[in-house]
């Protein structure tokens, strides 16, 4: 079945450092891909999305490009801030033959940014 | 995006009791889902809440344990029945709005602790 694999955390960076969180997926169809962020004690917020190959999603300085050839959707940010400290989830939507619409999540990556 | 609220935001319950969680959306949505997030873990889909019919449960989740209602296009409830400490989790509802085919937006979650 479909699956999502994220790089393990926690990831600890200094403020203004470059961030990459790797995400790869396995899917039989052509899923949409998402990054969600969960700040401490809160629910999930949609960070960005991409719906087809070569699409780039971006928001709040974060970017991710849908790479069909490498089945990847890595999250990047050029300069992180302390306020970016959170758990980041990569996810895909089931748009295969069953088209249930459900999301399949990676295990989450904790980012801690130190001043 | 839709504004989603959940009640209660948190609760502490005794084992053997049941808790009903409400999810209210400020606009009509096509799909509603319920997820569970166990401590330190990723999200797992419990079921798809179908308007006017029985929910569609994922493998490992059953209606007797997690009865779900969705009487209209803006409201759903999830009941956690006969609770045990293993049910301690964050429970989140999510929705797909009418303007989107597969982007899910999440409520703030209900943090449940079972003693």
List keywords for this structure.
heterodimer, A: 115 residues, mainly beta, 6-stranded mixed beta sheet, 4-stranded antiparallel beta sheet, 49% strand, globular, B: 115 residues
Describe the structure.
The complex is a heterodimer of chains A (115) and B (115). Chain A is mostly beta strands and 115 residues long. Chain A has no helices and 12 strands. Helix content of chain A is 0%, strand content 49%. In chain A, a hairpin with a 5-residue loop joins strand 5 and strand 6. The model of chain A has no long low-confidence stretch (mean pLDDT 92). Chain B has strands at 4-7, 10-13, 19-25, 29-37, 43-49, 56-57, 68-72, 75-80, 89-97, 104-106, 110-114. In chain B, strand 4 and strand 5 form a beta hairpin. Chain B starts with a strand and ends with a strand. The interface between A and B is medium-sized, with 21 and 23 residues.
How many extended strands of chain B? 11
Show unreliable segments of chain A. Answer: none
Order of helices and strands of chain B: EEEEEEEEEEE
Mean pLDDT of chain A: 92
Structural class estimated from helices and strands of chain A:
mainly beta
Shape of chain A: globular
Taking pLDDT < 50 over at least 5 consecutive residues as the criterion, the unreliable ranges of chain B are: none
**Helix content bin of chain A:** under 10%
Number of helices of chain B: 0
Q: Which sequence of SSEs, written as H and E, runs from N to C of chain A?
A: EEEEEEEEEEEE
**Which outline of chain B best applies?**
globular
Total number of helices of chain A: 0
Strand content of chain A: over 45%
